[in-house]
Write a structure and sequence with these properties.
The protein is mainly α and 122 residues long. It has helices spanning 12-44, 51-80, 85-121.
């Protein structure tokens, strides 16, 4: 017999907390990535090729961080909205779109760094 996951009645506030924490982690990763790239790029590679990959990565991380800030503002707005369920649903859809955009931008940044690293190591 397979173990079943027990049903859990998630409150809206718990869901908002999870969303907020997820966004906080993505923005922390992006900010840290920007700092590490800027600090160590010249020390790791003497004559780096394909510097455009670094520019794409830095811009992607910055864009992701900005999107995360807007996402957090949307979650705060959604959590405080008690009058209009229709408005809260619109903000929820916007928040989901922003979260996916932030994740996509982060993944583009990481991919650019991987391409840059592979090009300059081999």
């Amino acid at each position: 017999m397979m173990n079943q996951i027990p049903d859990h009645d998630w409150s809206e506030i718990e869901i908002y907390k999870f969303e907020f924490e997820y966004i906080k982690y993505i923005s922390t990763l992006c900010t840290g990535s920007i700092l590490l790239v800027v600090t160590f790029i010249e020390k790791l590679f003497k004559k780096p090729e394909w510097k455009i990959c670094i520019a794409v990565a830095l811009c992607s991380f910055l864009l992701s961080t900005i999107i995360c800030a807007f996402s957090q503002a949307c979650i705060i707005e959604k959590a405080s909205e008690r009058e209009s369920i229709e408005r809260r649903d619109k903000v929820q859809n916007l928040t989901i779109g922003l979260i996916f955009s932030s994740l996509l931008s982060y993944l583009i940044g990481v991919s650019s760094l991987v391409v840059f690293g592979l090009k300059n190591l081999f």
